[in-house]
Amino acid sequence: MTQPIIEFENVVKRFGPVTVLDRLNFSVQPGEKVTIIGPSGSGKSTVLRILMTLETIDDGIVRVEGEPLWHEESGGELKPAGEAHLRHMREKLGMVFQNFNLFPHMTVRRNLTEAPRTVLGLPKAEANDRAEELLDMVGLVDQADKFPGQLSGGQQQRVGIARALAMRPKVMLFDEPTSALDPELVGDVLNVIRQLAEEHDLTMLLVTHEMRFAREISDRILFFDGGTICEEGTPATIFGEPKQERTREFLKAVL
Ligand code: ADP
Ligand code: MG
């Protein structure tokens, strides 16, 4: 096996008295497409938010490309990471949120060019070219001068995906990207994600309740329950012959 691109090792996350992640262990290989499923409150979003450095951890270690995320090595010791290290690590990942989280006061084009220009220092023309190419990929090239509020939810989410990709991340994180959408708008968003899943080099970690979609695009499924992985396996195993009673009950309820 090659070095995992993402590793969670005995990760503990608490919110006050509540233990949300309870010694969580898993890893993702480069290029792998992994889907997290599980009941509400099982810690799925927290995993993605920790990777984006939107939440800290209380114990354990998270690595991205073998480098500790929340810590950095100094003289053989691990110490809490400074802002520069976090920024460097964050650039490896792009996230798509359930509620889009676009910048409402910026045009679609500017949503895509802002971070590449300010964070990566890309010249304006290059950032614009990149935006154009990505908007074309998600089928929104004619919407570049609109504001997010003028678009449908499905269009906004496709902008969200394009905006994350504009940073050329190695890993794309999706947190229930279609669950805020009207049913008729889900398909276009899933088609964009499906297209990305065909890219060999891109690693994907996806949280979704779209079970048929998960089965189709994932290399591996992690079933979360109570802040740990209750069961994991290929889509064929998890959906076809789950071993744990809790997995069977969850699938019976959602399928
Ligand atoms: P999931 O995405 O699987 O539904 P989450 O990771 O969002 O679960 O949340 C896991 C648990 O952590 C839930 O019980 C939730 O209420 C709690 N939680 C999440 N974020 C916070 C927070 N900022 N403060 C307090 N509790 C939180
Ligand atoms: Mg969630």
UniProtKB/TrEMBL annotation:
Record's protein name: Ectoine/hydroxyectoine ABC transporter ATP-binding protein EhuA
PROSITE patterns: ABC_TRANSPORTER_1, ABC_TRANSPORTER_2
Keywords: Amino-acid transport, ATP-binding, Cell membrane, Membrane, Nucleotide-binding, Transport
GO molecular function: ABC-type amino acid transporter activity; ATP binding; ATP hydrolysis activity
Name of the encoding gene: ehuA
Source species of the chain: Aurantimonas aggregata
GO cellular component assignments: plasma membrane
Cellular compartments annotated: Cell membrane
Alphabetical list of NCBIfam families matching this protein: ectoine_ehuA
Membrane topology, as annotated: Peripheral membrane protein
One Pfam family of this chain: ABC_tran
Domain ABC transporter: 6-251
Listed CDD domains: ABC_HisP_GlnQ
Keyword set includes Transport: yes
Entry coiled-coil feature ranges: none
Keyword Cell membrane: yes
Family, per entry: Belongs to the ABC transporter superfamily.
